[in-house]
Design a protein that fits this description.
Blueprint lengths: L5 H9 L2 E6 L18 H4 L2 H4 L2 H6 L1 H16 L5 H8 L6 E6 L5 H4 L5 E3 L2 E8 L25 E5 L8 H12 L3 E5 L10 H8 L3 E6 L11 E4 L2 H13 L1
The structure holds adenosine-5-diphosphoribose (APR).
The site of adenosine-5-diphosphoribose (APR) has 23 residues, from strand 7.
Length: 243
């Protein structure tokens, strides 16, 4: 049974506007590997070779092989209890937004309506030359897919050194300035500018709750940390709110 102190419970129960800021850890229990930590992807693979624009221009085949590998894992995965609890909590508060760094589309698959994708979405693609979107399964039988204009088609995800989608970042910032309760779930909170959203919420007076299996860079700045699996803690919090 999850123990919640009176003060934290009071903040949760009185909240009107809530944000769930999520990272790879929220999808770990769906079988999708995280990036850092013991079995993190970046311990085995080099982001310089796989998640940046120059690497894509130099070797688009390699980058696509990797994204198709990740897409296969994601398509074979399902949202877990953490994703469903977040979607469910949309009914328990006046206003709920999900601000995610994940490109796996699992929040939407779990039914969350208000999702801001700071790092894009692996289900979308676009031409690097004319920006035409190709948001469907691409054909790789003739090699790396090309746009009708001849440009290379890339996944609509944010690579290192690239700007975040303006509209998604602006909407997340605005939501962070107006929320009362801000959950930070399954992120190491070391990647910027996404992590600035956390400090914005703090600056504008939100009550910050961290959910992570271990301490992170922000554990000292949040109001409350629950250490454990998101797929166990979020459903437990939801039950406490409901009763
Ligand atoms: N429940 C809660 N937290 C978990 C769980 C779990 N079941 N499993 C792992 N975690 C925590 C880890 O302890 C770690 O703090 O999730 C965090 C995952 O951190 P990262 O792997 O660094 O992922 P993330 O913070 O999302 O990375 C940010 O970096 O590589 C880029 O673009 C990529 O969006 C990604 C960004």
């Amino acid at each position: 049974m999850l123990e919640i102190d009176k003060h934290t419970l009071g903040k949760i129960k009185s909240a009107k506007s809530v944000i769930f800021f999520t990272g790879a850890g929220v999808s770990a229990e769906s079988g999708i590997p995280t990036f850092r930590g013991k079995d993190g992807i970046w311990n085995k693979l080099n982001p310089e070779e796989l998640a940046n624009f120059n690497a894509f221009i130099k070797n688009p085949q390699l980058v696509w092989e990797w994204y198709n590998h990740r897409k296969k894992i994601i398509h074979e995965s399902k949202p877990n209890a953490a994703h469903y609890a977040i979607a469910e909590m949309e009914k328990l508060f006046d206003n709920v937004s999900v601000v995610t760094q994940n490109i796996d589309n699992l929040h939407k698959r779990a039914g969350s309506k208000n999702v801001f994708e700071l790092h894009g979405n692996i289900e979308r693609n676009y031409c690097i030359k004319c920006k035409t979107h190709y948001d469907f399964e691409l054909d790789f039988s003739l090699g790396v897919p090309k746009c009708k204009c001849g440009g290379l088609i890339r996944p609509d995800v944010v690579w290192f050194g690239e700007f975040l989608p303006k509209d998604q970042y602006a909407a997340s910032e605005k939501a962070a300035r107006h929320c009362n309760l801000f959950f930070v779930v399954g992120t190491s909170a070391v990647v910027y500018p996404a992590a600035y959203i956390i400090s914005t919420a703090k600056e504008y007076g939100a009550f910050l709750i961290e959910i992570n299996i271990e301490e992170t860079e922000i554990s000292s700045m949040v109001d409350k940390s629950f250490f454990g699996k998101a797929g166990e803690i979020l459903p437990a919090i939801m039950e406490i709110i409901r009763n």
